[in-house]
Amino acid sequence: MPMPSHSSILSAADSLRGKAVGVTLHSPFPCRIPWTSHVLSWDAGVRLLHTLIRAGPLWFQVVVIDGMANGHQGARAYTNDLMRQALAHTDALPLPSLGLGGFNS
What span, in angstroms and rounded, lies between the C-alpha atoms of 80 and 51? Predict the structure, then answer.
């Protein structure tokens, strides 16, 4: 199944650029999914990543967010909701946390 177009196409030619959304985390340290994972909607599931990382004896949380670009209607409310979800995730565990990502504000 082809990806949805990134934006409206004004010409008759098809766009080869798909809708790019999502976050990843690349780390030289061991990572794992938290044991208190919350259920996310599909869209939030690709725009919000919560993981635990172990660096030596220290465990900490990393949250990566891909906020919606401000040019979209409702972007601020959507990104604020992602931030609230990220805080709910990090508050569930008594570990230090680090927030990363593109907040597009």
Answer: 20
**Strand pairing report for 97-102 and 58-66:** parallel
Taking CA 59 as the corner, what is the angle to CA 57 and CA 61, rounded to the nearest 5 degrees?
160
Strand ordering across the sheet containing 58-66: 31-32, 48-55, 58-66, 97-102
Query: What is the rounded distance in angstroms from the CA atom of residue 40 to the CA atom of residue 90?
Result: 14
* Cβ atoms of 61 and 90 closer than 8 Å: yes
The per-residue pLDDT for range 16-69, each reduced to its tens digit, is 555 566 777 888 888 887 766 555 555 556 788 888 999 999 999 999 888 888
Say whether pTM exceeds 0.85: no
The SS3 of residue 48 is strand
Q: What pLDDT score was predicted for residue 34?
A: 76
Tokens 């891909």 label which residue?
66
Helix or strand run (H / E) with residue 47:
helix 42-47
CA distance 46 to 77: 17
